[in-house]
Write a structure and sequence with these properties.
Elements: E1 14-15, E2 19-21, E3 25-29, E4 34-35, E5 39-41, E6 45-51, E7 68-70, E8 74-82, E9 86-88, E10 93-101, E11 110-113, E12 117-127, E13 129-132, E14 136-139, E15 145-147, E16 150-154, E17 157-162, E18 168-170, E19 173-176, E20 181-186
Parallel strand pairs: 1-4, 2-5, 3-6, 5-7, 6-8, 7-9, 8-10, 9-11, 10-12, 11-13, 12-14, 12-15, 13-16, 14-17, 15-18, 16-19, 17-20
């Protein structure tokens, strides 16, 4: 929640129980605000979140309840940290950006499900998320670290490593749906 010109303002209330619908960007999150229990749907970008520390990041502040981020062209554009959100059934990518996607444990996992691409164009660490039921779960980038996620029931591939290098995939639980690949390495990808 951004209030122009008030960079040092501390919000003490909650932003909860709202339906945020039909906007260019549903929620621009760039303050230490307790934002949870909202439905953010039908926007160009569901959430644009900036928060580089656990004191300011989406899903870390206050009661840290999940928002349902759904049916947007792009679910979340992240710069920093995010945990405990439900990013579901977005038209294109569920989560893109940079930083750390996920918290310190699966207890506060982001649930990224039912998107065309669960995580794509994301630079940084992907950890402690449930990535399930997407066409492609994660499209890895060069130097990507993917660890300790539940990557299950994605319809085409769980983790796609295509034309990139130095991707680290460790400690994940992977489960395929029918004929889907769990990890696919192709198009000149190398270590």
């Amino acid at each position: 929640y951004v209030i122009p010109g008030n960079r040092n303002l501390t919000l003490t209330g909650q932003i909860t129980g709202n339906v945020v619908d039909a906007s260019r960007t549903g929620l621009r999150y760039a303050a230490a605000a307790d934002v949870g229990g909202n439905v953010i749907r039908g926007n160009g970008v569901g959430v644009s979140a900036i928060g580089e520390s656990t004191l300011r990041a989406l899903g870390f502040v206050g009661q840290a309840r999940a928002n349902l981020i759904t049916q947007n062209a792009l679910g979340v554009s992240l710069s920093g940290l995010m945990q405990g959100q439900i990013v579901a059934d977005n038209i294109g990518i569920g989560v893109t950006g940079r930083g750390t996607l996920g918290g310190e444990s699966l207890e506060r996992a982001n649930v990224i499900r039912g998107n065309a691409l669960g995580v794509g164009g994301f630079t940084g660490l992907v950890q402690h998320n449930s990535i399930t039921g997407n066409a492609t779960g994660i499209a890895a980038l060069t130097l990507q670290e993917i660890r300790e996620n539940l990557i299950t029931r994605n319809r085409v591939v769980g983790v796609l490593v295509a034309g990139v290098d130095d991707v680290r995939i460790a400690g994940n639980t992977l489960q395929a749906e029918d004929a889907a690949d769990l990890v696919r390495v192709q198009n000149g990808a190398f270590n």
